[in-house]
Design a protein that fits this description.
Length: 200
């Protein structure tokens, strides 16, 4: 589903990524491992079209370079290492942001959008926090909420940059099991930084 063909990135004159070629099929996870500065985050940002790159990236046979932002957001959901978390926003409203690519311009979220978000909050044991402000939550709680938001996007490609680093071991396992369960149910493609490579 994702094809990388000679993908490279330069920051000024310094190469950050060089000639990456690979393919990830529907239902697969690809773990990207390497030391700090190896280009893991840069590769994920390239697939999400957040940095300019050389080479070609296609998703489902479509070159990402020709996709509009809304169409790309329906295909690719990205969790950065340091997501923006508006402190005064409630948990429920933040997770609902994941539905933005599915809501038309000048339109409001539907009951179906709210139901999708409520189900994800429930699956991640976050329902009691729905009305709390993000500023009142711990780092681990915030990371679970970021996962809920990205899963609410319902994109077939998930890009996760160290998505469980702030979670304790039990919550880390729960979050990864949920992502893996959804991967199997929905035939998602997943790329994640720092984890071992797992192919199913």
């Amino acid at each position: 589903m994702i094809t990388l063909d000679g993908v490279g990135v330069r920051y000024g004159t310094a190469p950050a990524l060089a000639e990456v070629t690979d393919q990830v099929q529907a239902g697969e996870w690809l773990g990207i491992i390497g030391p700090n500065g190896a280009g893991k985050t840069t590769l994920l940002r390239s697939i999400a079209c957040l940095v300019k790159h050389d080479g070609k990236i296609t998703i489902g046979g479509q070159p990402t370079s020709g996709l509009r932002r809304r169409r790309l957001a329906r295909l690719v959901a990205y969790v950065p290492q340091h997501p923006e978390l508006p402190p005064e926003m409630t948990v429920g409203d933040y997770v609902l942001l994941g539905r933005t690519p599915h809501i038309g311009y000048l339109r409001m979220e539907t009951d179906a959008d709210r139901r999708i978000c409520a189900e994800l909050l429930d699956r991640l044991a976050l329902s009691p926090m729905a009305g709390r402000r993000l500023a009142t939550l711990s780092g681990g709680e915030l990371q679970r909420i970021v996962l809920a938001r990205v899963l609410a996007q319902q994109a077939p490609v998930l890009l996760l940059d160290e998505p469980t680093s702030a979670l304790d071991l039990g919550r880390r396992v729960d979050a990864l099991e949920l992502i893996d369960e959804l991967r199997r149910e929905e035939r998602l493609v997943g790329l994640t930084g720092r984890e071992r490579v797992v192919r199913a």
